[in-house]
Amino acid sequence: MTLDITAPAEELESAVIITAPSEELDSAVIITDKVDIEALAAVYRRVHAADMHLVDHSTPTVEERLRATAEADGFVAALGFVGGELVGTVMGCPLPPETLWWRDLTDVRDPELAVEWEGRTFAVVEAFVLSEHRRHRLGVRMMSDLLEDRREERISLAVTETNVRVWRALQRLRFQHVGDLVPFAGWRSHRMLVRDLPLSSSR
């Protein structure tokens, strides 16, 4: 779980190209269910170069994590490109009733929070973009385009407790902190966040 490909666009099956604003004609977001794991892993390692020594980024391996997400039922990704170069992604999948997403969640006030049914939750499992391209607001655009047509009731994602910048940004988007958990043994604690869909909802 991380918040903060390089197949050409024409090779990405089931893709929808979202045109960039006129002032950002060199950037684009593609929605697809087919991704290049090796290319994504290379971008991930550039984004997290300073932290790759942490267990969070090494066990499971980046490739194993990305591949597990890409093989999940209902997987979909938003890929960000600048000048034709892959620079980031937001990717996830619907949570099935038997999901382990909420395992070991602490401080749960609502016992129904971790109960899943078909169509309840879309989970954003990975989200990262190269820092030198953040001026294009690709993170926001990828998240928005990925979730625009989702039919689930809510979205959930996890943020490392030390990632204050992203945590504050998500609070402004009305994400609610519903508890904490450690996704894998040895990882840092993550804040588990939830908000209603659609993103335009005022609930």
Describe the structure concisely.
The protein has four helices and eight strands.
Describe the protein in words.
The protein is an alpha+beta fold. It contains 4 helices and 8 strands. Strands 1-2-3-4-5-6-8-7 form an 8-stranded mixed beta sheet, sandwiched between helices. β3 and β4 (85-94) form a beta hairpin. α1 (37-47) crosses α2. The longest helix is centred in the N-terminal third of the chain and has 11 residues, at 37-47. It is globular, with a radius of gyration of 16 Å. The chain starts with 15 loop residues before the first strand and ends in a 7-residue tail after the last strand.
Label this structure with key terms:
203 residues, 8-stranded mixed β-sheet, 19% helix
Sequence of strands across the biggest β-sheet: 1-2-3-4-5-6-8-7
Q: Any low-confidence stretches, pLDDT <50, length ≥5?
A: 4-25
User: What is the assembly state of the chains in this entry?
Assistant: single chain
* Overall pLDDT score: 86
Q: Give the overall silhouette.
A: globular
Order of helices and strands: EEHHEEEHEHEE
What is the number of helices? 4
Major beta-sheet overview: 8 strands, mixed
Estimated radius of gyration: 16 Å
Taken as a percent bin, the fraction of beta residues is 25-35%
Q: What structural class do helix, strand and pairing data support?
A: alpha+beta
Distance between the termini: 26 Å
What is the helix content?
Answer: 10-25%
